[in-house]
Amino acid sequence: MQHFDGNSLAGPLADFFAFDITTTNARCNGCGNVSELARAMVYRSDAGTVVRCDSCDHVLATLVEAGDRAWIGFSGVSAIEVRRS
Amino acid sequence: MSDASSLATDASEAATPAAPVRTVPRAGWHTATVVAVHRETPTASRLELDVDGWPGNAAGQHLDVRLTAPDGYTATRSYSIASSGPSSRVVLAVDKLPDGEVSPFLVDEVRTGDLLEVHGPLGAFFVWEPDGRRSLSPAGRVRPVQLVAGGSGVVPLFAMAQAHAAADDLTPFRMLYSVRTPDDVYFADELMALAAASDAFRLDLVYTRRTPDGWPTPPGRIMREALAAAVIPAADRPLVYVCGSTGFVEQVASWLIELGHDAQSIRTERFGGT
Ligand SMILES: Cc1cc2nc3c(=O)[nH]c(=O)nc-3n(C[C@H](O)[C@H](O)[C@H](O)COP(=O)(O)OP(=O)(O)OC[C@H]3O[C@@H](n4cnc5c(N)ncnc54)[C@H](O)[C@@H]3O)c2cc1C
Ligand SMILES: [Zn+2]
């Protein structure tokens, strides 16, 4: 199945967050790796989008959109680092 | 692989640290008017858009195009922006995948005057911005930039090369561009002109199916040794931007790491496919 970079989530996530979350560092629950979301692997299907760790393939996040609702889960992320500007 | 503090150190050492990326304009949905369409290659079109309310964009950013069918069905795809700066004019170059849902429409059907719904500017990660101060610093203190493009993957990298030239930035830039044939080179005239105009920009082309007459090497896919010979050596600690089909990007990125490039210094943009 083809995949993209986390950088391609900038559009889908811009509607939900006040800043570009793709440059945020996130820690993977699976392997502890800390990396920008833009470096994660993104798999898309009609059912939704799955974001996987680029080090261990663990599922970091899921995004499901249906009509005017969206479900965003960060099941595999233990922390994100947000820098105040 | 690395903890937060080591990443923070990497970021502060990098020639494009996190700072510029947070200043990119806020994304929004806009109506774009197609102001020019032309054939870029036998399979691709260049679209120039005038985007209502566009806040400008940095080199390397993309936008999402949303097409809506009369029955309300929508399809959204990402396209890199070949231009940068404060202008509301935005240039795209789209390659047609014959069995694709969106690209055949953008390449063959779109006409001057058509309206498109676009979301952007997007992405603060795969971005290069000129830094006037760096241009003046001694050559040895500048981190050079290596661009590696496969096919349509040249689009955001062309924007970076053009921004580099427009800013008179002296950071050494080198582009390795892999294409099928001489007819498949995107922005061919512009790239040749950039390479001719500046010692700080070097262009290396690799032809995978057919070369120009008299080309020194036979056509063929880029191999590890050819990559090693054409990119800025790992010892010079370049920032590397790799863009193209997913298969191309994965192959190049894994070879770069084998050649000693630091994974944190490599930024990738996968366009899809295998
Ligand atoms: C951040 C980002 C920037 C992009 N920028 C550009 C750009 O500047 N120019 C451009 O032409 N495209 C770009 N793309 C790719 C673009 O978003 C679409 O994926 C592409 O146009 C195909 O869409 P489609 O609807 O025609 O094909 P789809 O209906 O989505 O797919 C049709 C078939 O083609 C395959 N496929 C999809 N993408 C590719 C590919 N790149 N190579 C080979 N096979 C593929 C699919 O697996 C599928 O079998 C970008 C993608 C991303 C994520
Ligand atoms: Zn992991």
Q: What do you see in this structure?
A:
The complex is a heterodimer of chains A (85) and B (274). Chain A has one helix and eight strands; from the N terminus they run βαβββββββ. In chain A, the strands form two sheets. In chain A, strands 1-4-5-6-7 form a five-stranded antiparallel β-sheet, with no helix packed on it. Chain A has a three-stranded antiparallel β-sheet with strand order 3-2-8, with no helix packed on it. Chain A is mainly beta and 85 residues long. With 274 residues, chain B is α/β, with parallel strands linked by helices. In chain B, β3 and β4 form a beta hairpin. Chain B is globular and about 55 Å long. The model of chain B is unreliable at 1-22 and 135-139 (pLDDT under 50). Chain A binds chain B through residues 2-8, 10-11, 14, 19-20, 22-23, 25, 27, 33-36, 38-39, 55, 81, 83, 85, and chain B through 1-4, 7, 18, 21-22, 24, 27, 62-64, 76, 78, 119-120, 122-126, 246, 267-274. Chain B: InterPro entries: Cbr1-like_FAD-bd_dom (IPR008333), FAD-bd_FR_type (IPR017927), FNR_nucleotide-bd (IPR039261), MRET (IPR050415), OxRdtase_FAD/NAD-bd (IPR001433), Riboflavin_synthase-like_b-brl (IPR017938). Chain B: This is Ferredoxin-NADP reductase. Chain B: Residues 1-24 are annotated as: Disordered.
Characteristics:
heterodimer; A: mainly beta; five-stranded antiparallel beta sheet; 1 helix; B: 274 residues; six-stranded antiparallel beta sheet; five-stranded parallel beta sheet; 30% strand; binds flavin-adenine dinucleotide; binds zinc ion; ribosomal protein (chain A); ribonucleoprotein (chain A); Ribosomal protein S27E (chain A); DUF6510 (chain A); FNR_nucleotide-bd (chain B)
